[in-house]
């Protein structure tokens, strides 16, 4: 089947990346503060900002399938593995290794303070540059904590072309069934494993939270949603807009009132399909929402959101030595980090990406 939507840029999705990255930044700025006096929705949004990472995983699956899938639904991607790997390296490497260089002195600081063992530090120094730290819990958060998710992304990149080839031999329904099965397995593992074994240690919690296969459901859900968007029945822009607002409102409600939801630890898994609906809706928006999300300034911030995400913790460590940070100071720091992320995107990421892509 040929695509229902012609292949084009999707600037609204780029802008959503900035919103998700900002949520992670605000989450870290809120660490150590007493949020009890804040209104319930605001408190919940700040406490749940880390879930912007799950949104990134869903969005990554959508965008990669959208970019690399062929014109026919039953055809495997024709992209050479070398070209795919170079493109992904060009996307990740410049800001990733800049962040590691900025954060490197703090590895030694953590060891000296007794916060990290020498074994964990040595493991991190070997595994983190290779994007393998999330596979070994003691190393996962040592050298620039947010980088664990890039280790998961690297796993997704390795799985993407085989998954796309598999999807070409199976129906859209089968692909959604695979996503649902992976999500159910992740829920079962994350909630049953701690009761079956003693997973209360810090490393046990890191294993549950960061081990890459546990996040594969998010990525495959994004891929399945992109396939539906490209090859499924074409929906009116008004339908996309309604889906976007309805799913975004559900996400905000689930996050904002998380403290009032007795079964939050089970219900937050519903964010994966809700994030997929947000992405699906935003891919073909119309009206004022489209004009906002497609505004060039917001799209630029979305382009710089990866630098914002990967650099913000090292920069905060250099500026303040750690958290908590006074609220007024945190606002100024956030603005400065956003500005630095744009500069990094324009003058480091973009030129280096072009050079790497030409190799």
Q: Level of helix content?
A: over 70%
Radius of gyration: 20 Å
Q: What is the number of E strands?
A: 0
Number of helices: 16
Inertia-based shape? globular
Distance between the termini: 34 Å
* SS-based class: mainly alpha
- What summary fits the major beta sheet? none
> What number is the mean pLDDT?
91
In N-to-C order, the SSE pattern is HHHHHHHHHHHHHHHH
Residue ranges: pLDDT <50 for 5 or more in a row? none
Beta-strand content bin: under 5%
Question: What can you tell me about this protein's structure?
Answer:
The chain has 359 residues and is mainly α. The chain has 16 helices and no strands. It has helices at 11-30, 40-47, 52-68, 81-112, 118-127, 148-168, 172-196, 202-210, 216-231, 237-256, 264-267, 271-282, 288-293, 296-303, 305-320, 327-357. α10 runs antiparallel to α12 (271-282). The longest helix has 32 residues, at 81-112. The protein starts with 10 loop residues before the first helix and ends with a helix. The mean pLDDT is 91.
Question: What topology does this entry show?
Answer:
Blueprint: H1 11-30, H2 40-47, H3 52-68, H4 81-112, H5 118-127, H6 148-168, H7 172-196, H8 202-210, H9 216-231, H10 237-256, H11 264-267, H12 271-282, H13 288-293, H14 296-303, H15 305-320, H16 327-357
Helix pairs in contact: 1-3, 1-14, 1-15, 2-10, 3-6, 3-9, 3-12, 4-15, 4-16, 7-9, 9-12, 10-12, 15-16
């Amino acid at each position: 089947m040929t695509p229902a939507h012609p292949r084009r840029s999707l600037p609204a999705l780029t802008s959503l990346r900035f919103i998700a990255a900002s949520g992670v930044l605000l989450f870290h700025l809120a660490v150590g503060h007493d949020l009890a006096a804040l209104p319930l929705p605001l408190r919940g949004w700040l406490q749940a900002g880390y879930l912007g990472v799950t949104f990134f995983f869903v969005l990554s699956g959508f965008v990669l399938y959208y970019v690399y899938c062929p014109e026919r639904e039953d055809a495997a991607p024709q992209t050479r593995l070398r070209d795919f790997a170079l493109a992904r390296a060009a996307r990740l490497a410049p800001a990733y290794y800049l962040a590691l260089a900025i954060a490197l002195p703090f590895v030694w600081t953590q060891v000296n303070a007794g916060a990290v063992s020498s074994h964990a530090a040595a493991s991190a120094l070997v595994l983190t540059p290779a994007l393998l730290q999330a596979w070994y819990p003691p190393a996962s958060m040592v050298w620039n904590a947010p980088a664990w998710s890039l280790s998961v992304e690297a796993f997704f990149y390795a799985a993407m072309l085989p998954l796309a080839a598999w999807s070409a031999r199976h129906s859209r329904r089968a692909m959604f069934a695979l996503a649902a099965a992976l999500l159910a397995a992740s829920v079962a593992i994350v909630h049953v494993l701690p009761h079956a074994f003693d997973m209360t240690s810090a490393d046990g919690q890191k294993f549950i939270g960061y081990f890459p296969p546990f996040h594969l459901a998010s990525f495959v859900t994004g891929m399945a949603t992109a396939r539906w968007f490209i090859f499924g029945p074409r929906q009116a822009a008004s339908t996309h807009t309604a889906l976007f607002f309805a799913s975004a409102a559900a996400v905000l409600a689930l996050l904002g009132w998380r403290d009032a939801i007795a079964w939050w630890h089970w219900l937050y898994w519903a964010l994966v399909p809700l994030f997929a609906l947000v992405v699906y809706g935003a891919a073909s928006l119309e009206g004022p929402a489209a004009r906002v999300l497609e505004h060039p300034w917001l799209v630029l911030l979305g382009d710089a959101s990866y630098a914002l995400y990967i650099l913000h913790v090292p920069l905060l460590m250099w500026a303040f030595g750690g958290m908590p940070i006074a609220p007024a100071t945190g606002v100024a720091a956030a603005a400065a980090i956003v500005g630095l992320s744009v500069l990094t995107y324009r003058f480091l990421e973009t030129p280096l990406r072009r050079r790497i892509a030409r190799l």
